[in-house]
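Please check this one:

***
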Amino acid sequence: MLRFSSLIRIRGINPYIRVEAMLARRLRENWRKPLPVLVRINGQPKNPWHINMMLAGDGSFYLYLHEVVRKASGTKVGDQVRVELWFDQAYIGGPSHALPSWFSVALEANARARMAWNDLAPSRKKDVLRYFLGLKSPEAKARNLRKIMDALFGKEVRFMGRTWSGGK
C-alpha cells in the first residue's frame, strides 16, 4: 500500500490528486497506461474504490476522484487529504468480452488475420468485441465478419464508423 498526503485540485470539471512519478513507480514500475488502483481518501470508503489513474505525460498520474469517494470521505476541491492506494490485483488487461465463436473460428483458420488481430491495441479489440456482442442475426454476423476480416487483411474498408487501413 502507498500512503501520502495531497491536495485535491480540479482539472476542467474533474477533481483529482496528482500522484508524482516517484510514488507511482512504487505501485508499478514503468507502467505506461491507465493504472488500475484501489483508493481510500481519509480512510473512506471502507471498501477501497476501483479507479484507473490516468497518465499525466511525465511519469506522474492523475487520480480522478469519483463522486462516491468524495462523498464517503466528505472532501472537496482544495482539501488536504490522506491518500491510500493499492495496485488493483484483480486487474485483467485486454478486452473483457470473449471472442464470439463465429469470429474465433475465422481467426483460427487464417494466421494472417489472427496475427493482425493480436497486433491491435487492446482498446480497439474491446470496441470490436463489444460491437460484435450486439449483433443478433446471422446475416449481420456474416456481413461484419467479412468486414473485419478484410480490415485485418490490410484492405482499406469502412467498419464501425471509421476507415481501417493496413490492418488497423
Strands lie at 2-7, 9-11, 14-19, 35-41, 44-55, 61-64, 80-87, 157-159, 162-164.
